[in-house]
């Protein structure tokens, strides 16, 4: 009789323990900022206008491409050193706002965060910074 009770108790304990997601992280641990900033660019200040949960959701929905892809696009399009990156939502569109230093001129560039299409470039002598 004792063995049947012990076996029943062990089976119950096993079922309870295996039903608890031990390694699952709670939703509050989602770090959208870290998800987007998959690489760090030395010397570039990074700012996020929106909280990490909003960014996390936007990345998973495909509205924001990671920094590594942004940096590759910038290196293909422009000359200069990135000194500041901001990510913000503007009229339901995610936008990367960059500041570059090219020949001691500060150039402001905006990219659509989903398509990585350049949508704005301005600043003194900005045409010289364009590669194409």
TrEMBL record:
Species name: Vibrio zhanjiangensis
Keyword Lyase: no
Key words, A-Z: Signal
Protein name (record): Membrane protein
Name of a matching Pfam family: PepSY
Residue ranges constituting the PepSY domain according to the UniProt record: 69-117
Signal peptide stretch: 1-24
